[in-house]
Protein: ROK family protein
Organism: Jeotgalibaca ciconiae
Amino acid sequence: MYYCGIDLGGTNIKVGIFDQEFNQVCEIRKKTNEHLGPKVVIFTIVEAIHQAIHTMELSEKDLYSIGMGVPGIMDIEKGISIFSPNFTDWSDVPIIQEIKAHIDVPIFIDNDVRVNLYGEWFFGKGKGKENLVLLTIGTGLGAGVVVNNQVLYGAKNSAGEVGHMNVVIGGRECKCGSKGCLGRYVSARGIQRTFMEKVEHRESIVTKWLNDDYSLLTPEIISKGFDSGDAVCVEVFQESGEFLGYGLKNIMNLFNPERIIIGGGVSKAGDRLLNSAKEIVSNHALKVSQTACDIVIGELSDFAGVIGAAAYGKMKAEQGELNELI
């Protein structure tokens, strides 16, 4: 019996097949192409699952469950993705219904950050922790929270949406309808926008590297500029890190975790981003919260979402079987 995990990201879709010991035996990656709308995205997911099954010379009957992490807010029980700020024309998408029309396997969805949390909690830097927060910094910004060994979901499964904490009055517009949300500043897109705002009237080595084609701009390139001593890139990470620090300080004071794990693609920036963030935490977080908590980079990187989704799907399928017996 095998388990399937899907990480639906704003840039890539990752599908993994795992054996009973949760060793990954197959992985398929495809471009999300979110700008083409939900029907194309769902078709790509189905295509990737079928490709993984065929690559392993399996049938659908060999899959015990499919778990999937989806960005944004959702109705987990009904399998509907209600809202995702980084996807185009994405509203009340019946994602499970659409996928099950093509694949007859039990499938379960959860917020993408929470499935990343399950990955790090079960298999990575969160092992053994009873009070834990995973903050993922990727296309957007979100958090998964464990308090006293229980994952927080909230009344409408939207607990952990720290990316929508307001940090700038009248700041950058967010697709949630508000302005100045933390995720508009601390995320891949937020960091890129901060760079673009600063480079408008200043020179940067990055401009030469890209030949003025800013469609190629990424946090990795800004990191390279930082390492080269480029003043604009240094300021970008200093400012972004300070915003992150206030977010971390609020998380620390609210949830009193033992550990905050920083995950997502932008976490690869490491101390370039975290040094100024930790300084803010040190100066502004409650001392009782600081002494109980450390801040670390995730162990599993972008693998956390795939393996976490697979583990989540297995867990939900087993709960369903137990409920049927009761």
Summary: The radius of gyration is 20 Å. The mean pLDDT is 94.
